[in-house]
Amino acid sequence: MERKRWLNAKLASNLEGCLFIAPWLLGFIIFLAFPLGFSLFMSFHKVRVIPEGMEYTFNGISYYREILFNSSAFYEQLIPYFQEVVIMVPIILIFSLLIAILLNQNLRGRFLFRAIFFLPVIFTTGYLLTEFVNQGEGSLGFLERFSIGAYLDTFLGNSSWAQPVKTLLNRFVLILWYSGVQILIFLAGRQTISPSAYESARIDGASPWEVFWKITLPAMTPFIFLNLIYTVVDMFTFPFNPIIKLVGTGNYGYSSALAWIYFLIIVIFLLVVLLLFMRLNRGQRISKG
Q1: 131 contact partners, CB below 8 Å, separation of at least 6
Q2: What are the tens digits of pLDDT across the range 171-221?
Q3: Residue 4: inside a domain, yes or no?
Q4: What's the whole-number mean pLDDT along residues 243-266?
Q5: Could you give the number of structural domains in the chain?
Q6: Does residue 281 lie in a domain region?
Q7: CATH code for position 118
Q8: Is residue 12 part of a domain?
């Protein structure tokens, strides 16, 4: 009798939990799982729009083979942008971490400064950001003013990194605009560190530089990793991402295959970043031990 009562209570608890997650689960199936599955289905078919609806002709992996082995357009757009991402991600992380440490100081109007750094995240998104850059507002203009482009050409020569570096410097304002969320995350992480740790370090005679390397940076490691993942995903879905423009073609099957290839590249890149971060973190722990 008690076992039956326990099973009924457990069933009621499971049903209650299912009711709570039902809205999220329904939204996930309708707005994410189904579109993903449908795009994967279309990537293996030739899709034609006819008056009666849509016609699907099985095409196998032809689109994947064409993109990966028979077309250079994908690589011509992917490789330069990939180089930009490799440069932009550490710059955004370092800038965000430094600004978060400054905003955590007991300064007058610090709440105003926090709002100022976060406002671009709200206003400069999507179409609005595109219009800003098209009107020349996203460029600092110092490359032309100080002839820095010529120095870069001399220094980098014919290197494949020359154009990504110049593009990044031309759009350096975008780095500031895309650091708001990271600054808030770092700020929240900085506030989790107990003030007593800094007081003990000052009593022991530690310099600010030693405090940063021995206390602040190790305690911020989980937040650095979180911001690293967020920034990588954010950069790969950047409004000026040339791959996204390639995906937006009228050929539904080809576009779906291209989107899935791009998705797998992002996943592989995230896995590489995860492995490198874990190895560096493990190395720091061993050196401390």
Answers
A1: none
A2: 666 677 778 888 888 988 888 888 888 888 888 888 888 888 888 888 888
A3: no
A4: 85
A5: 1
A6: no
A7: 1.10.3720.10
A8: no
